[in-house]
Structure formats: C-alpha cells, structure tokens
Write a structure and sequence with these properties.
By secondary structure, this protein is α+β, with helices and mostly antiparallel strands. A 4-stranded mixed sheet has the order 3-2-1-4. About 40% of the residues lie in helices and about 20% in strands. The chain has 3 helices and 4 strands. It is globular, with a radius of gyration of 13 Å. Strand 1 and strand 2 form a beta hairpin.
Length: about 120
C-alpha cells in the first residue's frame, strides 16, 4: 500500500522528468520487499523497450532483496537496453530515496553503458 507522501514524491519526480526530458526513454524502478524491477519506457509511444528484474530465473542471485541482486538487475537492464538501441535514458527513481538498492541498480546500469 502506498502512502500519500510516497504518491506525492512519485508524481513530483515524474512531472520533472516529463517537463525536462529531451525525448529520452525513461529508466523506471519499482522496488518491493523481495524484488526489484527496472524498465526502459518510451513515453511518446507508451512502449517498454527493455525490462529486467530480480524475479527472473536465469542469473538470479542467492538473495533477491539485497544490494547485490539490485546491481545484477542494473547490469541486465543496461545490456538489454543497449541491445535494443538505447544508450541515453532519464532515471526515474519513482519516489524511492536514491540510496541502497536503487543506488546500486543505477550505478550498475551506468557501468553497463547507459548514460543518465
């Protein structure tokens, strides 16, 4: 269940991305208690270009809820985005604090070749 403050942070982040992005796809993050998910979304055509999660069978870490699992998801999303022809994205942290698993995913995606 999301709180009103979380929804407020989420909408504020999405508004800033929508008004300041230069047509780049959006790297959107969703974090649950057990897993972390990432999608590269083209908002102009409303199409998901690439996705990765800690819930996938191949390459799953021993624990799916820690920083190591988030960094492996970051590497996977960078690899899949580059394969689909996307190099530059806008990072959408989705109302989550840029700390811990979200930061680990972002750093791994940058190391994998995505620019944001």
């Amino acid at each position: 269940m999301t709180t009103p403050l979380f929804k407020k942070r989420q909408s504020r982040t999405r508004y800033r991305i929508a008004t300041n992005s230069t047509g780049r796809p959006r790297l959107s993050i969703f974090r649950s208690g057990k897993h972390i998910y990432a999608q590269v979304i083209d908002d102009r055509t409303a199409v998901t270009l690439a996705s990765a999660s800690s819930n996938e069978k191949e390459g799953r870490a021993a624990k799916t809820w820690n920083v190591d699992a988030a960094s492996s998801v970051g590497k996977k999303i960078a690899e899949r985005a580059l394969a689909s022809g996307v190099k530059q994205v806008v990072f959408d942290r989705g109302g989550y604090i840029y700390h811990g698993r979200v930061k680990a995913l972002a750093d791994a995606a940058r190391e994998g070749g995505l620019e944001f």
